[in-house]
UniProtKB/TrEMBL annotation:
Keywords: Cell wall, Membrane, Peptidoglycan-anchor, Secreted, Signal, Transmembrane, Transmembrane helix. This is Gram-positive cocci surface proteins LPxTG domain-containing protein. It comes from Actinorhabdospora filicis. Residues 405-421 have a biased composition (Basic and acidic residues). Residues 395-404, 423-434, 441-450 have a biased composition (Pro residues). Residues 455-493 form the Gram-positive cocci surface proteins LPxTG domain. Residues 389-462 are annotated as: Disordered. Pfam families: DUF7927.
Length: 493
């Protein structure tokens, strides 16, 4: 199958046409005669497989080109593959030149096509993207950009990947938190895996409860690590499940842990799919006030209530800090004076409760003072209690999926690129100061505009287009200068 990437050529062609219509300088109408196509032959390759490249360079012009240079930069492929020493075609190189580049140099007659080939064999090392970048140049023509191809290198053998999910976004005291580690083999042969979850930063706030696996051996918990080892058939998977229970006292109020397994996506456990973090929410309430025997009727009794977010979860938005001072056992002995003062947040009286609401980030607190006046007729117990009514999310975070396996249908798998050389870019001629050209700015100083080195295949169109527009602008200025010179000649005649 052959696919052509035409964007560069189309965008460049459109730009040239536009400039030509505006000023029509003769030098800008001449298009590059070189048509370059590159094929990798395959969209993907497996470990140990071969990528056979074919590059065709056709001189579509009417003049022979004495020297065409084709340089293929293998810098991003040699981490994944070895060069087979088989470059062929006119002017084929004897070997790789520094830095990992194959260069063919040859003459090309008008209408002729040169076919250049070489191959790589993948090693299973590297970043699994065999990328190569082609530049073509000829005297009088600068390279319009780079034909960059990327061939994904697929694994052979087992391909074991893990993902770990958890049952709660947020926990609180006594919450049971359930972890599920899915271990899947997407490869073409069975593979063994050793999975470890270090629970050091979990069991400082929670206690380990139990663990199980969907098949194979049972997980083993030896504090602080949970481990599971086993073989997984190609296409098979195992789920290891385990539970912890948050305590009522904790260290850093965060259940933070990661699975690790050599030879998988979780070698270090740093990838997001390998980790979970469950904050523990807590609102610590304190209260100071008079002794519970209160005082004789008419005595004013003062209270201070404080709510502090001492967990690791911000109590804001839909889940603010909520607490209430329950005076149901006090109102028979005293009247609330409707004088709550403090903050942040609000304190509102709804007999027999004083309700406190505040947005408290981790570490923040809200403080309120109020008073009651003792009265006769009660049972003499001046009892009230400050309690939390805070809600937290009880749902699970969205399940993370397994990371995508090496696939053969990614956009990066476009295996065939096409590029075309720039039209000739005339050397800018400094304008002669003259009234007839005074409305035009001088052309930019310096060398002929060229395309920046290292243009990627994707995202390069705009830069190529800019380069072409710059060349067109220079050409337009040259056209103005030529017309001015013609007018001067006519005046002199
Ligand atoms: Ca690579
Ligand atoms: Ca912890
Ligand atoms: Ca009472």
């Amino acid at each position: 199958m052959r696919m052509l990437l035409r964007r560069s050529a189309l965008a460049g062609g459109a730009a040239i046409v536009a400039v030509a219509l505006l000023v029509a300088p003769a030098s800008a109408e001449k298009r590059s005669p070189l048509l370059v196509e590159k094929s990798t032959g395959v969209r993907t390759v497996k470990d140990g497989g071969t990528i056979a490249y074919t590059i065709t360079v056709r001189n579509t012009g009417t003049d022979a080109l004495p020297s065409v240079s084709v340089a293929e930069d293998l810098g991003e492929a040699l981490d994944d593959a070895t060069y087979n020493g088989d470059a062929a075609g006119p002017g084929a190189p004897a070997g790789l030149g520094p830095p990992g580049t194959l260069t063919w140099t040859f003459p090309l007659a008008a209408g002729a096509t040169a076919t250049l080939t070489y191959s790589l064999t993948t090693t299973g090392a590297g970043d699994r993207r065999a990328a190569s970048a082609l530049r073509v140049s000829a005297p009088g023509y600068s390279s319009a950009g780079v034909c960059r191809t990327v061939v994904p290198v697929l694994r052979t053998g087992p391909d074991i990947a893990l993902v770990k999910n958890v049952s709660r976004k947020v926990a609180m005291a006594t919450t049971t938190v359930v972890y599920r580690v899915l271990i899947a083999n997407r490869g073409d042969t069975a593979g063994t895996v050793d999975v470890t979850d270090d629970l050091t930063d979990v069991i400082d706030d929670a206690s380990f409860q139990k663990a199980s696996s969907s098949q194979g051996a049972a997980p083993v918990y030896t504090a602080p690590r949970l481990t599971w080892s086993g073989e997984i058939a190609p296409g098979g998977n195992v789920t290891v499940t385990y539970e912890v229970r948050v305590g009522t006292r904790w260290t850093n109020a965060v259940l933070n842990n990661a699975v690790t397994a050599p030879g998988t996506n979780c070698v270090t456990g740093q990838a997001a799919e390998c980790r979970t973090r469950v904050p523990v929410s807590s609102l610590r309430l304190t209260k100071s006030g008079p002794p519970p025997n209160g005082g004789p009727p008419g005595t004013v009794l003062n209270y201070i209530i404080v709510a502090r977010n001492d967990g690791a979860y911000d109590l804001v938005g839909d889940y603010p800090a909520l607490a209430y001072d329950d005076m149901s056992q006090l109102v028979d002995d005293a009247d609330y004076n409707n004088d709550a003062a403090g903050g942040p947040g609000t304190a509102t009286w709804a007999s027999p409760r004083l309700n406190v609401r505040a947005e408290l980030k981790v570490g923040e607190s809200t403080t309120w003072r109020y008073s009651v006046t003792a009265k006769a007729g009660g049972n003499g117990d001046f009892v009230n209690a400050f309690r939390s009514a805070t809600n937290i999310p009880t749902d699970a975070p969205p399940d993370k999926p397994l990371p995508a396996p090496d696939r053969d249908d990614t956009a990066d798998g476009d295996a065939i690129g096409r590029c075309r050389l720039d039209p000739p870019a005339p050397v800018p001629t400094p304008p002669t100061p003259s009234p007839s050209t005074s409305t035009t700015s001088p052309p930019p100083p310096g060398p002929t505009p060229t395309t920046p080195h290292g243009l990627p295949e994707t995202g390069g169109d705009g830069r190529v287009l800019l380069g072409l527009l710059a060349a067109g602008a220079v050409a337009a200025l040259t056209g103005v200068v030529l017309m001015a010179a013609a007018r001067r000649r006519r005046r002199q005649e």
